[in-house]
Specification:
Number of strands: 0
Oligomer: single chain
Distance between the termini: 45 Å
Strand content: under 5%
Number of helices: 2
Order of helices and strands: HH
Shape: elongated
Largest sheet: none
Structural class: mainly alpha
């Protein structure tokens, strides 16, 4: 004999709060900025070497900005929206 289950009121809610989503969008913007800084530096003629591909912006700065963006994303996921 089974008991009838009473209907429960299931509230629909987002897993993350507004603050989490704000940090996620900031992190995505920082990651996109890093990839934009990484682009370019090629040569139109494949027989000519362009040393600009190895400059500071593409080798050091842009990957660091991308990693900072990923760190912001991790922070946004771990942030407790109730505090």
């Amino acid at each position: 004999m089974s008991k009838k289950q009473e209907p429960t009121d299931h509230k629909k809610y987002f897993i993350f709060g507004k603050k989490n989503y704000q940090f996620m969008f900031i992190g995505l913007a920082v990651i996109a900025l890093g990839f934009i800084l990484m682009s370019g530096g090629g040569s139109d003629d494949p027989n000519i070497f362009n040393p600009d591909i190895y400059n500071f912006q593409r080798i050091r700065l842009a990957p660091t900005i991308v990693l900072i963006g990923f760190a912001i994303e991790v922070y946004a996921i771990l942030l407790n929206p109730k505090k």
